[in-house]
Design brief:
The chain has three helices and three strands, in the order H-E-E-E-H-H. The chain has about 80 residues and is of the alpha+beta class.
């Protein structure tokens, strides 16, 4: 079960990603790892961030995660369709 801060972070992250990315977005924290999954049709993308609690305590924000995820997702999509 998610802790309160994990739940709040995931909700805020989901909302911000929805503004930037088309597709189904799933965010959760399991065993101190933040997991982001994006599915659009047959394309499935997953990204994880280890040591979530430590990152959060050091000031890692939802905005920073959005930047990291959108960069990686864009590269992933480009690799699939333009490689």
């Amino acid at each position: 079960m998610l802790k309160d801060y994990e739940w709040e972070f995931c909700l805020a992250l989901h909302k911000k990603l929805k503004e930037k990315v088309k597709g189904k977005i799933f965010t959760t924290v399991k065993e101190d790892k933040l997991i982001v999954e994006i599915t659009m049709g047959k394309v499935e993308f997953q990204m994880g961030f280890d040591n979530f609690a430590q990152r959060l305590s050091e000031g890692y924000t939802t905005d920073a995660v959005v930047v990291d995820v959108t960069k990686a997702y864009r590269a992933y999509i480009n690799n699939i369709y333009f490689a």
